[in-house]
């Protein structure tokens, strides 16, 4: 039986282990943190991601954690409506809805489906060493673990990617983001609604998840710093930047527990020259970090995971399968990363003339055309 090591126990890593194990490959997950399936805030799952979860038999389980998004509203910073989008049309056209879920709920759904997969926590992989047709994962304590396939799902700051490419390709987008999940007082925010406010070089958005649970984010142009993503000070900082925005911004931030608020810089990359090095492959954010403006980060990690399993099923040969995986993945994600970058830049425009132009554009574009901008099949 072929063996695979999956470096990283996030969404991409869990989905990859699930996809590979269903193709008869023995998997082991190496997670650097002391526990699995904790942390993070919220994320959107578009129909392309739900179709992959359906192939894994997990569609109904994840849908139980969310209510379909039915309507989207875009306002300027003075609470003037710019556009209203019928998000229910997504389900009408594709047969599957757009949903927002807690990241931890997606973790739990994926974890519940894993069978006969070893999971090692506190396991830090620092690099790899080619060994003929195989590869060894090099661990922080000096251990070397040999395997047939090494899946680098180790995130946006992937050590394995840095070794493979001999450089750090990350590019700072120019803005920071504060993200959180909160349980609101009953009736504070309508079910099935997404609402976003555009300011100058800043914005604030809220997604309904289910009942009175919401996912929110605020963005602000500025230099990047390396403060810890989770810190109690981030809540007061978010209140100072976004507390004066139209309601219910302050209510949403006030209702957020400090441990449920994450502050990070936003990064992406140009298309990487390669995703594979022998039996080593990049997956998810390690392969194609993108700005969050299309809501496709987790979706593309799920696509990668299923694509990897399907390529191995079709070929049976690891080199042939990985060549196909790399080609398909690059063709799929390259345009999405570029489109997300363009959308993000437009949303973050700071110059008053550009911001006015953007808001005018949003108010004149037919809502159906605006929705097509986010269409990912």
From TrEMBL:
Pfam families: FAD_binding_3. The keyword Repressor does not apply. Keywords: Monooxygenase, Oxidoreductase. One of its GO terms (molecular function) is FAD binding. The keyword Cell inner membrane does not apply. Residues 3-164, 271-312 form the FAD-binding domain. This is 2-polyprenyl-6-methoxyphenol hydroxylase. It comes from Roseibium suaedae. The lineage of its organism: Bacteria, Pseudomonadati, Pseudomonadota, Alphaproteobacteria, Hyphomicrobiales.
